[in-house]
Amino acid sequence: MKTLTHKLSTAAASVALAIAANAASAEKWDMPMAYAASNFHSEMGVVFADKVREYTGGEIDITVHPGGSLFKGGEIKRAVQTGQAPIGERFMSAHANEAPLLGWDNVPFIATNYADNEKLWAAAKDKVNGQLAEQNLVTLYTCAWPGQGFYFKKPVASSADTQGVKFRSYNTATATFAEELGMIPVQVEAAELSQALATGVAEAFISSGSTGYDRKVWETLTHYYKVNAWHPRNYVMVNKGVWDGLSADMQASVQKAADETGVACNAKSASLADWYFEQLEANGMVVEDAAPEFLAELQKIGAKMQSDWVAEAGADAQAILDAYNAN
Ligand code: PCA
User: Which residues are the signal sequence here (predicted)?
Assistant: First the structure.
């Protein structure tokens, strides 16, 4: 006759077996992300992972690795394309050097608020996703950064004040912008930004209040000039082979999680934009609108960058702008 203990341990063993079987069938996905763990993009990555677990009944189990800890920002896209990581997140316009169309969200002064950025994405989405599909990537969701403005360590009223300044760029467009202002660009990942500023490798950059806050740039810099030149987007991408290997049901569950997270992430970005400026000010920085003379210079450079982008990215770029302007 079986003892109670024996019965209990048999029950425990079968539960353990069931869990093991489930775990064996669950897909474990490591998801490298480029920005700080406390950044809203990364926090939303965790929300996405939780939703995916829920909607797939635990069959896809995503572990988020923020801050470039698994793959550095600049390596994430290649890692996902080649299947070293099944899924990952990166700054889309960082890839405009390989495919100019991917700089759609980094053309100055086209979409200077969230609503227009959403409209621009609606116009760009199919073409951009088509381009990424050619690179073995499926886009799950995209999320906008707050508007981009300039950080300096002195007051700047026009390009007379920017000559020779060492400028941290994050892609080809920001490097061009800097050069047009007489600055010297050096490309640095957000994860290495504080160090680049502390060591004098860079002394200015363009970004959102978000990255200035994440990187505590008030330790080295003094001024932020609001420009809202553009709202660049991060995107969460999955390897196309991995995606095609999922059942239609699983794809739908993951896409549902992605759609919901994309909406929530953009809303969170918008709700934090002014809060970041308050934090910069609370830490001693001067935060103001760019002076009219400086802004006029930036707009002139922006117009040139827009025609350069269309020349480089071709008919698809023009079609995106036409669709955007038609709405
Ligand atoms: N922060 C990122 C990209 C855009 C932004 O606001 C960065 O500075 O790298």
Answer: 1-23
Which protein residue's CA is at the shortest distance from atom 8 of ligand 1? 207
Element (H, E) at 223: strand 223-226
Q: Does the C-beta of 190 come closer than 6 Å to ligand 1?
A: yes
Chain centroid offset of residue 189 CA: 12
Fold classified for 28-145+232-271: D-Maltodextrin-Binding Protein; domain 2 (3.40.190)
Is the shortest distance between the CB of 81 and ligand 1 below 6 Å? Answer: no
**Domain 149-230+276-326 homologous superfamily, CATH:** Bacterial extracellular solute-binding protein, family 7 (3.40.190.170)
Is 210 a pocket residue for ligand 1 (Cβ < 6 Å)? yes
Half-sphere exposure of 52 (CA within 13 A, CB side): 26
Kindly state if the Cβ of 211 falls inside 6 Å of ligand 1.
yes
**What ligand 1 atom has the least distance to the C-alpha of 210?**
6
- The DSSP letter of residue 82 is T
Return residue ranges of the chain for CATH 3.40.190.170: 28-145+232-271, 149-230+276-326
